[in-house]
């Protein structure tokens, strides 16, 4: 029986088959049906958690404060938060690793964003030309000197591209040039996330389950993108969104069109048990 459901955010929890901007980080929102489904899970004593590449603040902006009765894994597994927003665990880059990655991206002229616990730092080459996905969140700051990033507690570095064709070219270049101790994956229509190898959503979910005394087979996960693969590979009860990438869909056990269908299936199985 499932005791913990963990959901990706963008393209999964924010996905609305009637909305045209379901994937845009600044406009996509969690609709009422999905929020009601989360409430129903909690009412049935099933723990809920969000696992996202976003900040805790970004997740919170999607829910009224009284509905934030769930755990959050942010920045693809770098931080895990409890029900009261307390940090349960965290992991960040070393200064040497930060310098190695940002210097490379800067040398190659690639657009990129670094995230720390509470905000994003968007590197800007030309301060008069900030026109490309620059405001990934209302919690974005801008830097024009790469050395300003060296001393920060960075947990995720994200390279940016225009659409999947350009992203694939950037991705192939990055995995060829950067060290293999990094976890690099396309995470959306404009983003490639670069994390330390051991920092994944899957590992963070496993650690959260252990913290809560929940067995691996009692965990279900749902997502739509490459940064969700670690969850699909870690947990058998895995759900993928039908609009997800074809390669991603191969790794999940079930397929659903919208998030609340996953919740319906889990609650139906609970009633049968």
From TrEMBL:
Signal peptide: none annotated. One of its GO terms (cellular component) is cytosol. One of its GO terms (molecular function) is magnesium ion binding. Keywords: Hydrolase. The keyword Hydrolase applies. The keyword Hydrolase applies. It holds the Pfam family Hydrolase_3. This is HAD-superfamily hydrolase, subfamily IIB. It comes from Clostridium cellulovorans (strain ATCC 35296 / DSM 3052 / OCM 3 / 743B). The lineage of its organism: Bacteria, Bacillati, Bacillota, Clostridia, Eubacteriales.
